Amino acid sequence: MPLPRDYSGQTCALARSMEIIGERWTLLIVRDAFCGVRRFGEFAAHLRLPRAVLTDRLTTLTEAGVLERKPDTGRRDVYVLTPKGIALWPAVRALTAWGDAFYGVGSGPRRVFRHATDDAPLADDDRCTGCGAPVVVGDILVTPGPGLAAAAEDDDPVTRALARPHRLLQPLLDPSRAPRSERGSHP
Q1: What is the distance, to the nearest Å, from the Cα of residue 185 to the centroid of all Cα atoms in its chain?
Q2: Radius of gyration of the chain measured on its C-alpha atoms
Q3: How many CB atoms neighbour CB 172 within 10 A?
Q4: pLDDT tens-digit readout, 132-185
Q5: How remote is the C-alpha of 2 from its chain's centroid?
Q6: How far apart are CA 14 and CA 18, in angstroms?
Q7: Is 78 helix (H, G, I), strand (E, B) or coil?
């Protein structure tokens, strides 16, 4: 019997938040959306989770107003973070830093966050270590860190694209260049 989605009897804000983002795979979907993953097929190929689970999580995030489903080329839709979703960045960033600190590979973080304006690394509070300015999510450049293994040719297109520097919130892949099998439409 699956666990219920809600925290009956819990009235704190954390419990309410966990009802939206606390299910398995959900934060990884949000993380990928920050990195520019936008299409159902891209999420599915990169995360390698069952399509039914992905559909459920995307539906929950869309109904909660964390993601918005927008029409794109042809009959395909894309998922983009809403302002409510973008407000999750500090939590995603903090959990990533915590994971790097306690569960990272010995050679360092997999990704380094930089200020797109001057390429200086960001402090944990998303302040630029070069100019000292607070950096908004759209001005964060994600670059491969020392702990990131080289992407193999047989890796999915998202994994290969994440091995190159890119701005958060910008589309990661050009859908016209993705193999047909990875351009599948979402139910």
Answers
A1: 20
A2: 17
A3: 23
A4: 999 999 999 999 988 887 777 778 899 889 889 999 999 998 755 444 444 444
A5: 26
A6: 6
A7: strand
Looking at residue 32, its amino acid is: D
Cα dihedral value 10, 15, 19, 22, nearest 10: -140
- What is the DSSP code string of 144-156? E-TTPPPPPTTS-
For residues 174 and 31, give the distance between their C-alpha atoms in angstroms, rounded to a whole number. Answer: 19
Tokens read off for 118? 């001057």
24 neighbors 30 (Cβ within 8 angstroms): no
* Residues in contact with 138: Cβ distance below 8 Å, sequence separation at least 6, in sequence order: 167, 168, 169
Is residue 89 helix, strand or coil? helix
Alpha-carbon distances of 56 from 130, 170, 172, rounded to whole Å: 42, 24, 23
